[in-house]
Amino acid sequence: MASNTPVExxxxxxxxxxxxxxxxxIRNDSHLHAHHNAMRGSTSTETHFHVTITSPAFQSKMQPxxxxxxxxxxxxxxxxxxxxxxxxxxxxxxEEEQRDKERLQNP
Amino acid sequence: MSTLNEITSEADFSAQLNALPPSALLVLYFxxxxxxxxxxxxxxxxxxxxxxxxxxxxxxxxxSINAEELPDISEEYDVSxxxxxxxxxxxxxxxxxxxxDAAKVRDAVERHAGRASNNAAAAAAAAxxxxxxxxxxxxxxxAMPATQAPLGAASASSTTTPALTPEQNKEALFxxxxxxxKAAPVMLFxxxxxxxxxxxxxxxxxxxxxxxxxxxxxFNILADEDVRQGLKEFAxxxxxxQLWVKGELVGGLDIVKEELENDPSFMAEFSxxxxx
Lengths: 107, 276
What we know:
The structure holds two protein chains of two kinds. By secondary structure, chain A is α+β, with helices and mostly antiparallel strands. Chain A has five helices and three strands.
């Protein structure tokens, strides 16, 4: 049975394979932007995503470098017509994720 | 016919203000020499100035202020990005327009000063933007920061350079971009302008910079397709907005938000509210 979220599936598959993440959350925000000018004429429901990835692969890399790793992985989907239009990323190492959790608990 | 007068010092500014009656409308244009959109805006304001007659006592004055050289004046008028136009009268700020929206600035001046002389206004309305811009043609000289394509103007970018090969074109574009990303200590490449953002993420990033009182230069990538596509390759970054600090890419909205969360003093050195 074909999935009706092929782009999301592909994102998940590729990121899982490349980063072996301990946390991977994919949020489809396309509906928030569907009425925007840039989206006029588009029929896709998979254009805007917010992806949270926790993986040790990001260690000792600054944010731009981390994001580039993900962009490189999804290059094809991002460059093709009707593909991913916007990709927000949260890229953390397991230590950073832990630190953020603690920060939330001890404001 | 009024002119756009360049202010040379704080003393000069005070002197000019004192010479004007309190009822005069002050049109203050804040700029920096390195930001190409400012050259465009200068032409807009100079043309606008020429449409208002010089009267005695003066009813209107157009003053041009280099925001970097005269930071105290900029701070007084809350200038956070250039170009920036402030309308003031009798010691109070009436309105301010950030960016290069010529129509908006004209509209604001006309509302406060009355319409410019009829003929000029009609001609200007027809052109929708001041006459043929010869300022800042888009040539391949690397020293020139990129031009923001003026809205609707006829012969905006002069293409009188000899035909170049694709490789040379790309090289020239990259040279141009290398200069452009350093045009200001903090450079924002966005969709739209700070006063009229054309994308939610760009709007949010402008908001964040404003909240933190960060001084920055901006470039509207929707107005220049070469820069839009070229910068994606140059930066190895597929999306906009892009925030560059000291010639290095920091990232997009998500990264900037996160950096600030981790360290509230991130970019504090570029804030206009630096503690004395």
